[in-house]
Amino acid sequence: MALTSKNSSITEVSEFLLNCFVKSPNLQCWLSLPLSLLFLLAMGANGILLTTIRLEPSLHEPMYYLLSLLSLLDIVLCLTVIPKVLLIFWFDLKSISFTACFLQMYVMNCFLAMESCTFLVMAYDRYVAICHPLRYPSIITDRFVIKAVIFIVARNALITLLVPILSARLHYCHSNVIENCICANLSVSKLSSDDITVNRLLQFAGGWTVLGSDLILIFLSYSLILRAVLRLKAKGAAAKALSTCGSHFILILFFSTILLVFVLTHVAKKIVSPDVPILLNVLHHVIPAALNPIVYGVRTQEIKQGILKLLHKGL
């Protein structure tokens, strides 16, 4: 166990060990293949989507810029979590430095919150497009996207900064073994010899304030959209309006459903295996990332046409 001495009476941890499914070695073996395939799919699909939006002039619109931001966030989240998990599975490289652990903690918290906030901005975009279509070009502009991105980055970078700072200031003197595949806040903090009540409260309050408020506003937007759609009397108008936001709603379901299942299993950890919340936490960083660009690629005609154009140019 790597330790460094600050004085004669206190010996502090300089690195941690991620104890990832060590009680279930067969689970590691079985998980490594689908996890690596999902990782490759997420990287490839998001890379293709970003390239298509970048090179296809017809996709240079606010909605697709927001989708590009979502793909970037997914790529960063995958790269922050999945390669390290696979290194543990394949080569038993469990160690992670003190600095790297808290950096991973910050990136995970910050970018998940950014992703939630991006969904909120995309929901507002759909609300304006359907409920105020004549005003859409004047409201949802490139300047609006720039302001939205600044808001997404600034809000979540600042709000989530306190979590890793407080955790890093704790004293880790007894054990450096994290019972998790990732440096989750509470998994790390409970190793400390200090009182972590503040850390628990901050995690709970921050999570529900940021993610909870975003989800409430998202579903409020879709309630207003649904009400407006039901009032449309022109033949086929309702179906066409719903199809324009169907892809976005599916992505939100991916994000919120896995997150909700993770929260429920964590609450019911006395009933379910302790490996289940850990597994869901890992999957939450790769499954939405792999499925998001596929859903948009399949359901959005403009993106499909853009990808086909790129393929024809490449050939």
UniProtKB/TrEMBL annotation:
Compartment(s): Membrane
* GO biological process terms on file: cellular response to lipid
Question: Cross-referenced Gene3D superfamilies, in alphabetical order?
Answer: Rhodopsin 7-helix transmembrane proteins
Q: Write the gene name.
A: LOC100915501
Q: State the Pfam families in the record.
A: 7tm_4 (PF13853)
GO cellular component assignments: plasma membrane
Positions the record marks as coiled coil are none
G-protein coupled receptors family 1 profile domain sequence ranges: 45-296
Source domain of life: Eukaryota
Which terms are listed as keywords in the entry? G-protein coupled receptor, Membrane, Olfaction, Receptor, Sensory transduction, Transducer, Transmembrane, Transmembrane helix
Its name, as the record gives it, is G-protein coupled receptors family 1 profile domain-containing protein
Q: What coarse category fits the chief subcellular location reported for this protein?
A: membrane
Q: Which GO terms describe its molecular function?
A: G protein-coupled receptor activity; olfactory receptor activity
Membrane topology recorded in Swiss-Prot or TrEMBL: Multi-pass membrane protein
In its UniProt entry, the species of origin is given as: Sarcophilus harrisii (Tasmanian devil)
What sections of the protein cross the membrane?
A: 31-53, 65-91, 103-124, 144-166, 208-230, 242-264, 276-298
